[in-house]
Amino acid sequence: MTTMMDRSASAPGQAAGKRPLIERLNIVTALVLGTVSAVVVWQLALRFLPETPETSLFFNREDKISLLSLIGWFVGFMTGIGALIGPFRWALGKDLNHDENMFLAGKDQGIKRYFRYTTDHKVVGIQYLVITIIILFVGGTLAMLIRTNLGHAQGGWIQPQTYNAIVGWHGIIMIVATIIMITGPFGNFIMPIMIGARDMAFPRLNALSFWLIVAAVPPVFISFFTGGITTGWSAYNPLASQAGLGMNGYIAFICIFAISTMVAGANITTTVVKMRAKGMTWNRTPIFIYGVVASVALALPAFPVFFLSQIMSGMDRAFATSFYNTAGGGSGWLYENLFWIMGHPEVYVILIPSVAALMEMAPVFTRRPLFSFNLAVMGIAGISGLSVLVWAHHMYISGWAPLLNAPFMLTTELISIPTGMLFLVLIGTLWRGRLWMTMPTASIYALLWNFMIGGITGIYLSDVPADAFLHGSMYVTAHFHYTLMGAGLTGALASLVFWFPKMTGRMFNKTLSWVSFWLVQIGFNVTFIGMFLVGLAGQPRRVESYAEVFSRGNLITTMGAYTIMAGMLVLLHGVISSWRSGVKAPMNPWQAKTLEWTVPNPVPLENFETLPVVTSDAYGYGKAKS
Amino acid sequence: MSDVQVSNKAKWWKSADVKKTAILWVVITPIIGYVATEVQLRSIGAPASEVMASVKSLMGIFTWAASPVAGLVAALALTSLMGKRHYGDNPPPDADHEIRNSPRAAATWLVVSTLLCLFALITGLVVLQKDSESILDAKAININVTGQQWVWNFDYPESKGVRSEVLYLPVDRPVVFHITSKDVKHSFWVVQMGIKMDANPGYVTETAVTPNKIGVFDVRCAELCGLLHAYMQNKVHVVSQADYDAWLSNRAALEGAA
Lengths: 626, 258
Ligand SMILES: [Cu+2]
What we know:
The structure holds two protein chains of two kinds. The N and C termini of chain A lie far apart (about 65 Å). Chain A has helices at about 1-10, 20-25, 25-50, 60-80, 85-90, 100-105, 120-150, 160-185, 185-195, 205-225, 240, 245-275, 285-320, 330-365, 375-385, 405-415, 415-430, 440-460, 465-470, 475-505, 510-535, 550-580; one strand at about 435. By secondary structure, chain A is mainly α. Chain A is built from 22 helices and one strand. In chain A, helix 13 runs parallel beside helix 15 (about 375-385). Chain B is of the alpha+beta class. Chain B has helices spanning about 5-10, 15-45, 50-80, 105-135, 240-255; strands at about 85, 140-150, 150-155, 160-165, 165-170, 175-180, 185-190, 195-200, 205-210, 215-220, 235-240. Chain B has a five-stranded mixed beta sheet. Chain B has a five-stranded mixed beta sheet with strand order 5-11-10-7-8, covered by helices on one side. In chain B, helix 3 packs antiparallel against helix 4. Classes of the chains: A mainly alpha, B alpha+beta. Strand 1 of chain A pairs parallel with strand 1 of chain B. The site of copper (II) ion (CU) has 8 residues of chain B, from loops. The site of copper (II) ion has 8 residues of chain B, from loops.
C-alpha cells in the first residue's frame, strides 16, 4: 500500500519516503510550501513582469507582483496541507481507500490530528474554536490600541497612518471572528451530533473550509507591514484603489475567506437537510440547528458577491480597469452596492446563530419547554428573508438613489417584526421557569438587554432623516457593537460555557465564568453608552483625534474598554485552565434533552454506536399540573 | 403539543406573576422613556435648523414609542428573575407547567409590533417628505461644496465666484448645497443643522437646509477619506443678511485684487 501511495501522490524528491505522503503533510509543510511558493512567485514576477509605463495612474506593477505572490502563497499552503491529495487521487481514478480515509478522519493520532487536514467534524470544531480565540485575541488587542489612542483628545500617540491601519485591521478580523464564532466551533462540533449524524455530509470540504481560513489569515497580517488596510473594514473605493500595497492583503484575505464560507455553507446546509436522525422531522429539529442553517444559508448568496467585489477591486489596482473609477466610466456606488449586498445579510449571519444558541439553552436552564417554537422558526426565516432586501439603508446619504430611500426604510423597519418574535420566544421561555442560575442563563438576560438597545438604536438609524444626522458618526459604531458584540458575542460566550463539557470533557470553571461575565457585560455597556453619547454630540467615526467637547465620553469609553479586556482575559484564563485541569464532566451535566448529550466524553470517532431514532422534540421539560 | 393550561385561560390576569409584571411595567416604562430621551436630547445639543429640530423630536417620539416595549421586556425579565432561582451544580426540578405557546400572547405581540413598525415608518416618511421638498426651493442660495483630501471648499457661484474654506450662511434663508469631490469619497456634515450628504468624485449630490440661528457651527467629514480624515473639519458661520452681504463683497474684492 505504501508504495502505491507514493507513486500516486506524486510529490517530487521522495527518496526517503517510508511513510506515505498523506501522513507527512501538516501545518509545517503547509507553511513552508506556502512561503517558498510565495517567494518564488515574487522573484519570478520581479524578473519577468514588464515595467509599467510612467503615465500609469497607480503603481500597478507592484500590485500585480504582490497579488501574484499572495496567490502563490495560497496555492502553496493549500498544497502543503494536503487539500489537493483527494481531488488528485480521484482524478487519477484511485480514490482514497478505507484506511486512508480513517487516517484523514484523525483516527488514533492524538494531538497531531489538530495540525493536519483532518476531516472529523469534532477536530474541525476544536480547530475553529482555537482560531476564533486567536483572532478575537488579536482583534481585541487592536481595539485596546484604538481606545488607548482615543483616551484623550489630540493626545493620540499613534501616527494617523498606523491608526487607520489598526482600525481597518481590527474591523475586518473581528467581522471574520464573529462570523465563524458560532457556526465554526459549535456548528461543526455540536451540530452533527445534535441531529444524530456520524459526520458532516462532506467531511473533506469541512477540513477545506477550516484550512482556507488559516490560509487567509497571514495575508491580512502581512498587509499591516506593507501599508496596512487604511480604509476601514469596508474598503470603499476609490479610497481603496489609492491605498498602499496592504490592500492586496485585504483582497486576498476576503477572497479566500469567501470561498471558505461558501464551502462551509454548502456543507452545513446539506448535512442538516439530508442527515438528520430517523424521526427528526423539521418540527423536532432543535432551534439551534435552524439558527446555524439560516446563518450559513444567508452567507451562500452574500459571500460570492463579496468575493466578486474584491476581484473587481484587485483588477482596478492591478490592471487599471475601472469598475469603481468614475473617470474611467465606473462608479464607487457600484462598490458600495456590492459591499452592502453582502454586508447587511452578514450582520444576521452573525446574529441569528447566537440568538438561536441562547434559545437552545433557555429551556435547559428554565426547566420548561421552549416558548413557541413555531414563532422562533418564523422569526429566523423572516429575518433571513428580509435581510437580503435592506442593504441600501447603508447608502441613504450616498446620493446614489434618493428615491429608493423610502422603500429601503420600509424593508429595514419591517425586520423589527420578526426580530420581535425572537424576543417573545426568549422572554416567554423565561416566564415562570425554574431558573438555574448559570453564566449561560445570565447571558440570556444580557442578550435581551443589549439586543434591545442595539435594536432600538437601529430603528433611529433606519429612519432616513435621523440617519442623515447619525450616519458616519460614533453612534453607528456603538449601535453595531451592541448588536454584534452585545448580542452576538454574548451568545457565543454562553455557547462556549454550555458546550465546553462536551467539546473538552471538562466543566468550565464556574467562578471564572461569572467573573468574566460581569466584567465583560458592565464594561461593554459603559464602553458603548459612552460612545453613543459622543456620537449624538457629533463625533465622526474612524477618527484618530477629536474636538475637546468629546473628551469626557471618550474617556468613559476607554475605561469601559479596559474593563472588557479584563473580563476577556479572565475568560481566556478560564478556557485554558479548565481545559487543562477542570473538573471532569459527566456525559450530560446540564440534564439537557438534545442528542449531543447522549454520547459519552470524549465523543467517539463515529459519535453514535447505533444511530438514534427521534420520537419527540428536545423541549419536553416541565410537568403538567394535575 | 399542549396549549395554554385551562386554569390559565380563566383568569390569567389574576395571577401573582401577571400583577407583578404589570406593576413593574407601569413603573419601568416612564423611567426608561424619561432617562433615554433626556440623555439623547442633551447629548445632541441645540439645533440650528428646522431639519435638526425635527430629527430631535423624531428621536424623542421614537424613544417614547419604544419605551413601553423595552419596559415590558424588562418587566417580564425581572419577574422571571424574582421567581424561583436555583444555584448549584445539579439542575433544579422541572417547572410546574409545560406551556409551549400562547396564541393570545403571540397575536397581541405581532399586532402591536406591526403597529409600532408602521408608526415609525409613517413618522419618518412625513419628515422625509418635508426635507426633500426644500431642495426645490427657487429662492434658495446655491453653494457648491467640493471635498478634497483633507479640506472643504465652498463656492458661491451667484456671487462673482467667491470661494472660501469657511462656510458663511445668512440666517433664515434656504440654502441648497451641490456637493462633489475631487479625489475619494467624503461626507459633508453640518452637525448642528442635521444634514449630511456624501461627496462623490464625478457626481454632484444635493442637500438643503435653512439655518435658523445665528452662531458658529461645525462642518465635519463623516466618511473615512484617508490619512487626515479626522482633521477634515471647519466652521460654518451663520450671520445676519447684512453681515453676509458684507462678507461676500469683502471676499469678492479680495479675490478680484489677487
Ligand atoms: Cu473627507
